[in-house]
Amino acid sequence: MRKNKIVVGCQWGDEGKGKIVDLLAAEADVVARFQGGANAGHTIVVGDKKYILHLIPSGIMHPGKECYVGNGVVLDPYAFKEEIDLLTDQGIDYKGRLWVSPATNLVLPYHKLIEDVEERSRGATNLDTTKRGIGPAYVDKVARHGIRVVDLLAPERLKKKLDYQKKIKTKYLEGSADERADIDRTYNELLELAELFRPLVVDVSLALRRAYDNGKTILFEGAQGCMLDVDLGTYPFATSSNTTVGGALTGLGIGLKMIDQVLGVVKAYTTRVGAGPFPTELVDETGEHLREVGQEFGASTGRPRRCGWLDMVILRHTVRVNGVDSIAITKLDVLDSLEEIKVCTAYELNGETIDQVPLDLTRLSQVKPIYRTLPGWQSDTTGTTSFDDLPLKARDYLNFIAHDLKVDIALVSTGAKRTETIVI
Ligand code: IMP
């Protein structure tokens, strides 16, 4: 039976969605990306080669799969070209199977300039963004003066819209020596980039519906994590898109019924890049251990990730807001050598016990995690491919998570390679 799955990250991103999407793409005919931009970085290991894709769905690595970039994405045309060049260099044929919505908004050089200025003005309370121009591009989209892919194909309209940008962004652009402020230069570069896009533009909503009607299996690929959702995450320490399931409906123009299964990706511990509350953060040797063993450095920016214990309170929230049916647990092997493993089961705040995420961020920053300590298995699980071959204590750890969240475990990842996976 066909099963169209959506894959979402259940923490603050970097849960290892790239590998899971890559695995599931093998069973799908179509992969569609619905939000975010080049702030994401999906690392895929194929054989001995490592690829990092920021915008193009990782399904492109599978010959014959169709890949779609939806209107909910903010697309940096320069970064997109770099990825196309990478695919070409690697001999990966994308022609006739990579498509972009005309309604996708563009991230342009001035967005990055604006973000730099804004982040600097925030001073100590900056959001520590990826500096990929994501926020300012979504601001323009919502303000209804964003430049969209379709504008690339109409040079006169593009010129008019860029001239309007000059007018309304004087505060950032006028008198700036930064070349990103030079809108005429951007216009000329876009005219060249437009040729790359011309053959790729299709109505993504319509194409997906046709694929669906033709019985094709579709995989919906989320970027970032659900705690970074602009509405349901740790706002303002969030990204600017809806990273949760709802984002797929509006970001691709699909109906609810096109999604059969919601798969949440959960890293066996927690990480976060950038600023914002992180109740189970470990600023000690154990945190350092997780960072080293888990190679927790950003795929897009190389920044060291903050590391901490698994947080069930966060997971209960993201499982609920997405309606997660089953989970994929990643990086189990990173915990292999630990003597004991802690799991946060609730928070304590002013003498009160809380088992759900408080929506008031000030409260979330003040909570103290309440831990349950589980024994470590202290043996090597790397590359294990069967649940029954895992040490009993590792199975107990996984079952503890599934039981608390009332979900099934669909996959367990025990290493970076495609083959290092347990399929349940
Ligand atoms: P922005 O998306 O660049 O605006 O960054 C906003 C916040 O989201 C920052 O804390 C970033 O570190 C975080 N963020 C954005 N994209 C990712 C991602 O793909 N993985 C993890 N964190 C991300």
Structure description:
With 424 residues, this protein is of the alpha/beta class. It has 3 domains: 157 residues, Adenylosuccinate Synthetase, Chain A, domain 1, CATH 3.40.440; 93 residues, Adenylosuccinate Synthetase, subunit A, domain 2, CATH 1.10.300.10; 159 residues, Adenylosuccinate Synthetase, Chain A, domain 3 (Alpha-Beta Complex). It contains 14 helices and 19 strands. It has a 9-stranded mixed β-sheet, with helices on both faces. Strands 13, 15, 16 and 17 form a 4-stranded mixed β-sheet that branches. Strands 3-4 form a two-stranded antiparallel ribbon. A hairpin with a 2-residue loop joins strand 3 and strand 4. Helix 3 packs across helix 4 and helix 6 packs antiparallel against helix 8. The mean pLDDT is 95. Bound molecules: inosinic acid.
Q: How would the blueprint of this fold be written?
A:
Layout (H helix, E strand, L loop, with lengths): L4 E5 L7 H9 L4 E4 L8 E5 L2 E5 L12 E4 L4 E2 L1 H13 L8 E3 L4 E2 L2 H14 L11 H9 L6 H4 L2 H14 L1 H4 L9 H15 L6 H10 L4 E8 L19 H8 L8 E7 L2 E3 L12 H9 L12 E3 L1 E2 H11 L3 E5 L9 E10 L2 E3 L6 H6 L1 E8 L16 H14 L2 E6 L7 E3 L1
Parallel strand pairs: 1-9, 1-10, 2-5, 2-9, 5-7, 6-8, 10-14, 13-15, 14-18
Antiparallel strand pairs: 3-4, 11-12, 15-16, 15-17, 18-19
Helix pairs in contact: 3-4, 6-8
The structure holds inosinic acid.
Inosinic acid binds next to α4 and β9.
Summarize the structure.
The chain has 424 residues and is α/β, with parallel strands linked by helices. It has helices at 17-25, 77-89, 109-122, 134-142, 149-152, 155-168, 170-173, 183-197, 204-213, 245-252, 285-293, 312-322, 361-366, 392-405, and strands at residues 5-9, 30-33, 42-46, 49-53, 66-69, 74-75, 98-100, 105-106, 218-225, 261-267, 270-272, 306-308, 310-311, 326-330, 340-349, 352-354, 368-375, 408-413, 421-423.
